[in-house]
Predict the 3D structure of the following.
Amino acid sequence: MTPHILLINPNSSEATSDMMHAIAVRSAAGRLAVETVTASRSPGMIVTPEQLAAAAPQVVELGAAHGGACAGIIVSAFGDPGLAELRRKVAVPVVGICEASMIEASQGGRRFAVATSTPDLVEAIGQRAQDLGLAHLYAGIRCTQGDPVALAADPVILAEALAAAVRQCIELDGAEAVIIGGGPLGEAAEQLRQIFDTPVLGPIPSAVERVIGLAGQAATVSRAV
């Protein structure tokens, strides 16, 4: 089988999976192929801590079922559900889009923030910064107004709302890099990266770069052994 990245969408939306897949393929730029699988037991968009926790078991199931045939795995929901357990079950690198984007955003000691549409996940996202040892660089989070599912259904309004949140992160919180916090927000992140002088990170490209790097390191170690 051709070496590939497995991207797991913990949300149950096939349309979101298609969007994530397209971003991951562009980000991989021919270095590795991408296979995408979609959870079936989650809502179309995960917006609460309870939904995030409930998504973890199927993420682990999907990763364990496909992990032996891929070079690395991406968990493409911003709370990284099931990440730690999946790492224990497979022998390939596993990264979460929240983890990967926070690590990239903090490079060089940059102060970073998150702009997102899911206010109920603010605490979970902040906990990820704490877990990664990056709380001292975390400038916090700015959220859009209104129902996140309805907002996601209108790409133009979503991009405008997230742009306003990004400006707040930069102007009010002193962020030197801003992450667009959510897998389903991936297309909006691609747009916003082009319009700010301050770096705006899409979490899916961050995860692709990290998993390719880790897969390369693993291959090098394997050859050396």
Summary: Confidence is low (pLDDT under 50) at residues 221-225.
